[in-house]
Amino acid sequence: MTAKLDFDRAAPIFVLTLVDVLGLTVLLPLLHLYAARFNATPLEIGIVLASFPLAQLIGVPVMGALSDRFGRKPLLLISQITTCIGFIMLGAANSLTIVILSRVIDGLFGANLATAQAALSDITTEETRAQGLGLTGAAFGLGFIFGPLISIITLEVSDNLALPAFVAAVYSLISIFLTIFMFKETLPPARRGKRQPVKVLTLLKSGQINVLLVLMFAQQFIFFAFESLLGLFTLSRLGLLGQGNSLIFVVVGVTLVYAQLRLIGRWTKKYGERRVVLIALALLSVGLILLALTPEQPHPFYVKRIVERALIADTDVNSTEAVIGEIALDLPEDGHNGIGGLLWVFVVIIPLSIGAGMIRPSLNSLMTKRVGRASYGGVLGLSAATVSAANASAPLVGGLIFQQYGANAPFLIGGIVMGGLFLISMGIVRSPAPSLEG
Predict the structure, then answer these.
(1) Do 394 and 224 contact (CB within 8 A), yes or no?
(2) How many domains does the chain contain in total?
(3) Is position 434 within any domain?
(4) Please, which residues have CB within 8 angstroms of residue 106's CB and are 6 or more apart in sequence?
(5) Residue 345's domain is classified under what CATH number?
(6) pTM of the entire structure?
(7) DSSP one-letter code for 193
(8) What is the DSSP letter of 332?
(9) Per the domain annotation, does 3 fall within a domain?
(10) How would you classify residue 269: left for phi > 0, otherwise alpha for psi between -120 and 50, otherwise beta?
(11) Which domain holds residue 193?
(12) What secondary structure does DSSP assign to 346-361, as a single string?
């Protein structure tokens, strides 16, 4: 009989993860403004944006390994409490130093998602693990949809920039109470003491794990560059400003949720994680290459003069220009407006988003199958730190390529590299071997 995911045990993890992600995504569109209000330079804004993922490089693997030793619940609570403190510091910040410090504290100790993934790994079997890990991805997708909407509503209610940070802190506080009262420890003391956890350095010495970590970094680097530059790309190709891009990201979020809740479990059972990884890489490659070929056709209501005025009146310091300097961006000309370019983008982001929704849970599932249960937290912490490293560097490199070689270059290069990763993975990504702990 086919094994099924125990949703009664997985549901509380999904709910608290969703609440955690909502707190994070409320702030994501606004982080640059917290720096800009203290007259930060472009470089300083870049430091604020990079401080969280850079701090996670250090913090998440350590927190993950500690959760293997002391249990998921206490480390989850520590992560959520420090995240809440970081949000409060951000809202109350009276200097740029406090803004950066708030992000560093959250990054060092905020291993919420990695710990939740480890908890899901504890309660799943090898057959259901990718589906279980997909739940945290679905929570992220839902947060990606609703968090920015909550942020917009919050700022409509009040022009005070501190309010969204305090709203995020409230969500974090809710997640703390959910963990205290709903979350049941998934790693009991008997299992913690059963065998010595594999150390982080030991995991890094494993060729099996390193291959998957390199693949995780490469695909996340390419995909996060896509996320970071999509707004600039659609502005140059379609003349879209904030509202149009928000709609595109909502479609991306909905597709991510669908892929992680409906597709990944079914496809993993049918094909196995290795083939799902290959399918995801192929979809990402095709999606990025097709996106690069988007025709330069502004949307039906586009007027170049109006867009130019809007850009001058409301310069977006969160764009890549704010981090790497001026990017010369050519706007499309009036006169050949239509819906062809828009329809093209909305079609090609579907395979791209499906691939993105499946790749990380499948890679994480393969990693957990290559170690014993005592090291789930450690290996997922390493995975999360790898993602953080990609997120910290991708916008800068992608922006430089955009600036030097044109708007479609990052996506075309990314699609070709993804295709190369697909071919390489066919040879080096194997079905799970016996774990490091036997």
Answers:
(1) yes
(2) 1
(3) no
(4) 52, 55, 82, 83, 86, 87
(5) 1.20.1250.20
(6) 0.72
(7) S
(8) P
(9) no
(10) alpha
(11) 10-428
(12) HHHHHHHHHHHHHHHH
Give the pLDDT of the chain (438 residues) as one tens digit per residue.
456 777 777 888 888 788 878 877 787 767 767 876 787 765 677 678 778 888 887 887 788 778 888 888 998 899 889 999 999 999 899 999 999 999 999 888 877 777 887 888 788 877 777 677 777 777 877 887 787 778 777 877 776 778 888 988 998 899 899 889 888 888 888 777 554 444 555 665 666 688 888 899 999 999 888 877 787 788 788 887 655 766 787 788 788 888 877 888 888 888 888 899 999 999 999 999 999 999 988 888 877 777 666 655 544 444 444 444 444 567 777 778 888 888 999 999 999 999 988 898 889 888 888 776 667 777 877 887 888 888 888 877 887 788 788 889 999 999 999 999 999 999 888 766 544 444
Domain contains 166: yes
Instruction: In whole angstroms, give the CA distance from residue 234 to residue 299.
Output: 10
Task: Tell me how far apart the alpha carbons of residues 327 and 423 are, in angstroms, rounded to a whole number.
Answer: 34
Tell me which amino acid residue 379 is. Answer: V
CA dihedral 267→268→273→278, nearest 10 degrees, is: 0
Domain presence at residue 217: yes
CA distance 395 to 386: 15
* Residue matched to tokens 């125990």: 6
In whole angstroms, give the CA distance from residue 172 to residue 176: 6
